[in-house]
Amino acid sequence: MKRIILLGFFTLSLFFLSFAQVQVPESCKNIQIETSEDAQKYESCMLEIANFILSKHLLYTSDEYAAMNKNTLRWIKRTMNYTIDINGNIVALCKGKNAQLLPVFHASLVKAALSGATNFHREAIVILVDYISNEQNQVKKTGAIKKLLSAYKQNNFSEYYQ
């Protein structure tokens, strides 16, 4: 009987967690990142924004989401605390059916950098692979995506972050 109750509680908990939405605090929704000082000032907001973007499927659209994507790109361009590079292998992932994957990668970079990862470019790829691997995110498994996933499984994916 205890097992049934525990199993029911666990199932109910998972059900409610699946509907949990990542929310961005109101104070972070209308930020303007125009300078390197702004980029540093809003780092905590940028982490919230990155988590929000990563919680949405690839085809998700809204004005708020578009504004947050713009802020991640502005932060990447203006931060002085991190040197951020995007190589050709990443660009190849974000073409055609997966064109919307580039803003997701930007969010992965922001999250990895602001989470304190030692090699945040590598960590950004790990975050991106987790995102791509989640079927609910609706990422098309193109040849470039399959190549990344295969390289990741073999722990041989440095060409994506070096």
Q: Give the count of structural domains.
A: 1
Task: Return Rg in Å.
Answer: 17 Å
Low-confidence stretches: 6-19
Distance between the termini: 55 Å
Helix content: 55-70%
- Shape field: globular
Instruction: Calculate the mean pLDDT score and round it.
Output: 88
Residue share in β-strands = under 5%
Largest sheet: none
Counting DSSP H or I runs of 4 or more residues, the number of helices is 9
Q: Structural class of the helix and strand makeup?
A: mainly alpha
What is the N-to-C order of secondary-structure elements (H for helix, E for strand)?
HHHHHHHHH
Strand runs, count: 0
Report on the structure:
- This protein is mostly helical.
- It has one domain (24-160).
- The protein is 62% helix and 0% strand.
- It contains nine helices and no strands.
- It starts with a helix and ends in a 9-residue tail after the last helix.
Furnish the topology, listing elements before pairings:
Blueprint lengths: L1 H17 L7 H4 L6 H6 L1 H12 L8 H16 L9 H6 L7 H14 L5 H14 L9 H11 L9
Helix pairs in contact: 4-5, 4-7, 5-7, 7-8, 8-9
Keyphrases for this structure?
single chain, 162 residues, mainly alpha, 9 helices, 62% helix
Concise account of the structure shown:
With 162 residues, the chain is mostly helical.
